[in-house]
Design goal:
single chain; 75 residues; 2 helices; alpha+beta
Length: 75
Amino acid sequence: MDVDVLVDARGHRCPVPTLRLRRALETAGHGVRVRLLADDPLARIDVPHFASQIGARIIERDEDGKTLSFVVVRD
């Protein structure tokens, strides 16, 4: 899936990936697709929880080895 913004937070531990995602979503505005790449296993829990808190949708999830990928959009 094509995305508008890529946030590469691999190598960082939570809460850094979620904080970087938050910043990207705030900067990008509504309707912009943001892909987060993370390799912290806690992102599996933190990112969906964060998205639900701010009313965002995860429109794609993927896992390739240790890398987790989430595409998130705020409507």
